[in-house]
Amino acid sequence: QVQLVESGGDVVQPGRSLRLSCAASGFMFSTYIMNWVRQAPGKGLEWVAVMSHDGGYRHYADSVKGRFTISRDNSKGTLSLQMNSLGADDTGVYYCASEIDGFDMWGQGTLVTVSS
Amino acid sequence: QAGLTQPPSVSKGLRQTATLTCTGNRNNVGDQGVAWLQQHQGHPPKLLSNRKNNRPAGISERISASRSGNTASLTITGLQAEDEADYYCSAWDRSLSAWVFGGGTKLIVL
After folding, report:
1. CA distance A106 to chain B (A)
2. Rounded distance between C-alpha atoms, residue A10 and residue A110, angstroms
3. Between β-strands B18-23 and A103-106, what pairing exists: parallel, antiparallel or unpaired?
4. Do the Cβ atoms of A106 and B45 come within 8 Å?
5. B9-12 and B18-23 strand pairing
6. Cβ(B35)–Cβ(B47) under 8 Å?
7. Is A108 an interface residue toward B (CB < 8 Å)?
8. Is the per-residue pLDDT at A111 higher than 90?
9. B2: pLDDT confidence band, cut at 50, 70 and 90?
10. Interface test with A, best of B99, B100, B105 (most A CBs within 10 A)
11. Cβ of B81: how many Cβ atoms within 10 Å?
12. CA-nearest residue of chain A to B100?
């Protein structure tokens, strides 16, 4: 069964760090471009970051550049997002999504709440 | 990053046809094509049509996508109650090296 499962979401104070993970199963993870997309409560989708299948390129949204780092371990089938210097605007559900001509597979998401 | 433009809401009756639009520029919609997503409340998004205007397996034939210049459209025929959801367009922007989303259209089926 094709599956993406995010974890690591939590309530954190402003300025702190958090690491999200996404476990892939049921497909050849190492051949897929992977993304993180987030959604603030009651708002639309916002793309966060992308990483090529082999790590050859990574790109970030301006809103997270310099604070977030996307990484992957193809041997374990996992995608990660290291988030530093978190602020209230980073609150939301974070989804990992695979990409073939569009975001074709999504996880259920993990909730990050940044609050003092 | 500048996003794509979608109307906030569209209302149509049961069994009618809805056409949702998405406007960008020559660096995203006009060059890279648009992928469309559907999201029901409390659920993750689901891909309806990819950048090549192809439907993934399992997506209804009532759904079709097209593009003309910098504007893309998603058409849903024979509207059903289950089609009531939020719809997002997305495109890769070659100048930004970033994905951009539309703000979403809430489709209301009357």
Report:
1. 7
2. 8
3. unpaired
4. yes
5. unpaired
6. yes
7. yes
8. yes
9. low
10. B99
11. 8
12. A47
CA torsion, ordered B51, B55, B61, B63, to nearest 10 deg:
-40
Q: Do A101 and B88 touch (CB under 8 A)?
A: no
Q: Are A111 and B42 in contact (CB under 8 A)?
A: no
Give the tens place of pLDDT for each residue, A60-96: 999 999 999 999 999 999 999 999 999 999 999 999 9
The answer to whether B66 and B48 are in contact (CB under 8 A) is no
Q: What is the pLDDT of residue B1?
A: 63
Closest CA to B36 of B27, B52, B49: B49
Give the nearest chain B residue to A50 (CA atoms): B98
User: Which residues, other chains included, contact B14 with Cβ-Cβ below 8 Å and sequence gap of 6+?
Assistant: B79, B80, B81, B109, B110
Per the listing, tokens 């890279």 go with B32
User: Rg of chain B's alpha carbons, rounded to an integer?
Assistant: 13
- The neighbour count for residue A2, using CB atoms within 10 Å, is 10
Both tokens assigned to A84: 């530093």
Which chain B residue's Cα is nearest to A62? B1
β A18-25/A3-7 pair status: antiparallel
- How many interface pairs between A and B have CB atoms less than 8 angstroms apart? 62
